[in-house]
Backbone:
């Protein structure tokens, strides 16, 4: 399916900005990503309904504290809770990105769900497994503070986008093998599941005019940045390599047709099903990895948001 002209124009502008803005440090890379978010992505995001947003600090055993944002809908009927991890290749992104904040505000309000979003550690300064320790600590905190947060501790879901989808999937595995806190479902959006690059959809790279020969090395470079020497096939890095994917919360895996990471999501959904974990694959035609936030005028992004909202309501 052809791309929406809005998506094509946004991608063209982003590629041009990246090509014309040399970066030589993580700080410069993050500044460029934030500029793209502010100048290109945010104008394509629908204005969210009002919600209450507050900041909390969560202690992490053996690590520095992690900051979380709590998005609470104005409705008195909020019962569910959603622990969400943003995307950004493990090295950039955050809750200060205006499009991320707008998307979370919209979902909290429309689903009547309290969303807790950690501002987790970024590599290379704070590599694997620091973000995972933070993720586990926030899940514990959510259940311990359920009454104060206005959520039912038996109705907590977890999820994330891209690298955040990887963190959420790993958290589900860690929780199953650890404390077994009740998790209603996983919502994994354009998730990374294989940090070796072995499931990249290289035909998409060809269709986008990208150099497919560089895609796997690029993925491995990003993974190395995050893993800092750890094994990329470890289940806590790449959940697709977990020897046992049974007994996990029901999963909903959302993939974009025109996304080099589509294969990661497809493979993970299939692997979950093979191990007996209920998993539904949601395939969105004409969508790209970065366009799911374009809810102002892109029909595919609006459908994507409705799907997530319905899952959070369920």
Residues:
């Amino acid at each position: 399916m052809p791309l929406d002209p809005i998506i094509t124009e946004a991608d063209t502008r982003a590629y041009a900005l990246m090509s014309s803005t040399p970066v030589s440090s993580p700080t410069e890379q993050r500044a460029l990503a934030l500029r793209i978010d502010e100048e290109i992505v945010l104008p394509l995001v629908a204005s969210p309904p009002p919600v209450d947003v507050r900041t909390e600090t969560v202690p992490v055993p053996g690590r520095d504290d992690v900051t979380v944002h709590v998005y609470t809908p104005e409705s008195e009927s909020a019962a569910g809770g959603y622990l969400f991890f943003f995307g950004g290749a493990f090295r950039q992104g955050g809750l200060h990105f205006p499009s991320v904040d707008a998307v979370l505000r919209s979902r909290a309000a429309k689903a009547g769900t309290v969303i807790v979003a950690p501002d987790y550690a970024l590599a290379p300064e704070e590599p694997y497994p620091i973000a995972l320790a933070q993720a586990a600590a926030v899940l514990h905190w959510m259940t311990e503070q359920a009454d104060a947060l206005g959520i039912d501790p038996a109705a907590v879901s977890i999820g994330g986008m891209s690298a955040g989808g990887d963190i959420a999937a790993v958290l589900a595995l860690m929780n199953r093998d650890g404390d077994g806190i009740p998790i209603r479902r996983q919502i994994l959006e354009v998730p990374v599941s294989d940090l070796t690059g072995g499931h990249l959809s290289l035909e998409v790279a060809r269709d986008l005019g990208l150099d497919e020969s560089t895609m796997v090395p690029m993925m491995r470079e990003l993974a190395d940045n995050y893993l800092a020497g750890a094994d990329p096939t470890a289940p806590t890095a790449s959940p697709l390599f977990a020897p046992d994917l049974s007994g996990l919360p029901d999963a909903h895996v959302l993939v974009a047709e025109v996304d080099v990471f589509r294969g990661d999501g497809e493979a993970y959904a299939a692997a979950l099903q093979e191990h007996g974990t209920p998993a539904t694959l949601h395939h969105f035609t004409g969508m790209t990895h970065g366009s799911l936030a374009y809810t102002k005028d892109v029909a595919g992004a609006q459908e994507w948001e409705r799907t997530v909202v319905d899952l959070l309501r369920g």
Remarks:
- The radius of gyration is 18 Å.
- The CA atoms of residues 48 and 102 lie 6 Å apart.
- The chain has one domain: 5-313.
